[in-house]
Write a structure and sequence with these properties.
single chain; 7 strands; 242 residues; Rossmann fold; alpha/beta; 7-stranded mixed beta sheet; 14% strand; 38% helix
């Protein structure tokens, strides 16, 4: 991404239609001020992975809207519970989750569902890490790619998971049908209504992240937890994470 001209690497975006976030309007009074930190996860290990290509295109767009992005490569991530959480790939994923203030999950649809690769990444993220909740109150955007006609099965499952992980899942979403027809040989996405929807999703995610991150502790504060002791909360959360 050309930091001086971020649109230079986004030929399918109409520059006159780009609306950068109105930070003074969206941000909380005590917002930390740095660019929103967005972690991108994809759900395929194929050499030409369309979920990865969508994630890469999303990262470019997120940077256009002023976000800082990092991506996790699931190659080498062990199955959940098959090793200790100090495994290098697990530790990398958890560190990225703690760093992030929002996430993008992009999964292929396989047998009418998200892939096991996508689910494994989410399953390695517990509700609590040493008193720090790596997902609670953070924003989430969900997208999927399909080999056939348009479907929303994987997206709907990821929305359920986002709610379970206590994330603020944005209203917009993207589902790319017949993904193998939507990309050039160099891996860049062709202009289309599918592409425009991905622009919609990334634009909305950055806005929601600016709006929520300085207010998340207040927004997700729960009466039932405020009346618990710290020890009781830790016990309950750890039991649910088993």
């Amino acid at each position: 991404m050309d930091v001086l001209n971020p649109l230079a690497d986004l030929p399918n975006v109409q520059s006159e239609k780009v609306m950068v976030p109105d930070v003074p309007f969206l941000a909380a009074p005590d917002d930390p001020g740095h660019p929103p930190r967005i972690l991108l996860l994809h759900g395929s290990l194929r050499e030409r992975s369309y979920s990865r290509l969508v994630a890469e295109e999303s990262a470019r767009l997120l940077q256009l809207y002023g976000a800082q992005t990092r991506s996790f490569d699931p190659a080498g991530l062990p199955l959940p519970d098959s090793c200790e959480p100090d495994h290098p790939k697990v530790a990398e994923l958890r560190d990225l989750a703690i760093w992030s203030e929002g996430m993008v999950w992009v999964s292929p649809e396989r047998h009418g569902a998200m892939t096991g690769i996508m689910k494994a990444q989410i399953d390695w993220l517990p509700l609590s890490l040493g008193g720090v909740r790596p997902t609670q109150g953070k924003t989430l955007a969900v997208m999927q790619v399909s080999g056939g006609s348009q479907s929303f099965n994987a997206i709907n499952q990821m929305r359920i998971l986002g709610r379970w992980m206590r994330m603020v899942t944005i209203p917009n979403q993207s589902s790319v049908a017949k993904a193998f027809t939507e990309f050039e040989e160099d891996g860049r996405m062709k202009p289309s209504a599918y592409y425009d929807r991905i622009v919609d999703v990334t634009e909305e995610l950055v806005r929601f992240t600016w709006m929520i991150r300085g207010r998340s502790q207040y927004l997700v504060s729960r009466y039932s937890e405020r009346v618990e002791t710290a020890e009781q909360t830790s016990t309950r959360v750890n039991q649910r994470s088993l």
